[in-house]
Amino acid sequence: MLSSGGIRAHLLAARLAGVVATPREESLRSYRLFAARDPRVLIGLDPERSWGQRDLIALMADKCGVSADPRCVSGHDVIDPERTVAALDAFADRLASVAQRGAAVLLGTGHPHRLLGFYAALADALSAAGCEVLTPAQGHCVDITTRFGLRTHTLHYVRGVAVVREAGGERAGCATGVHSHSPLPVRVALDAAAEGAGRLPELVIGDHGWVCGAGQLGFETIGPADTDDPALFVGEAEGVVSVAVPLDDGVRSDYYRPLTRYVLNRACLSQ
């Protein structure tokens, strides 16, 4: 079992925390777009207050450990591993709470090539603990605006985790799913769950639009976020997101396995 010190060492070795690959320039660009309320960066969140770029830098310094100096405009961002460990502990506590109640949960990712294994292991453990892992709107179409224009995607579940695929994606070798920040897939899934005879989730676990989109609709949400994803941390600050875990969300998929073991052990869930 990994201790807090052990997971901290792994975070630094895998560059999930510490100096991460995300460029400072990219993060600052996201903060500027968020301050302008660009929907590409809001990813489903409708902030209550006005967030300027300096406000966001201060928030991200507090939540993630990035530089609080607005004059720092280049280089790689930094995530404080202690903040990541504390957030992983809070994440595990929410898993333990829903597992104790046998609650319904919904899992989805916009990072299927990186984080699908992480979420799938959580889905397996929660199911084994008596939770219902929901799969609403399987096969439903979702029109998502991409840099190539409006594209039709379909919602699918892989090992209990929702992903979106472009039409013909399986033939094109994208059966796992595509990268997406859109909140539309979770809205489609939650609408289908509400219209059907099944249960609504008591917890939504995911990233990007899955967290912000569901949180904005009043569902409890938890998930990881990088330094260029301010929406999740703003959502946490405003009480819309329950737990946002600061970490690099784009490293090799196997680097997340120790995080899986850590949160499941802390939540007293089987693996």
Report the structural category: alpha/beta
Form type: globular
Strand order of the largest sheet: 4-3-8-9-10
Total helices: the number is 10
- Beta content: 15-25%
Helix content range: 40-55%
The unreliable regions are: none
Order of helices and strands: HEHHHEHEHEEEEHEHEHEH
Q: What's the mean pLDDT score? A: 94
Gap from first CA to last CA: 12 Å
Beta strand count: 10
Major sheet characteristics: 5 strands, parallel
Radius of gyration: 18 Å
Pfam families: Phosphatase
Organism: Streptomyces sp. 900129855
Protein name: Phosphatase
What would your notes on this structure say?
- The termini are close together.
- It contains 10 helices and 10 strands.
- Helix content is 42%, strand content 19%.
- It has a 5-stranded parallel beta sheet, with helices on both faces. Strands 5-6-7 form a 3-stranded antiparallel beta sheet. A two-stranded antiparallel sheet has the order 1-2.
- It is of the alpha/beta class.
- This is Phosphatase.
- InterPro entries: Phosphatase_SCO2771 (IPR031423).
- It comes from Streptomyces sp. 900129855.
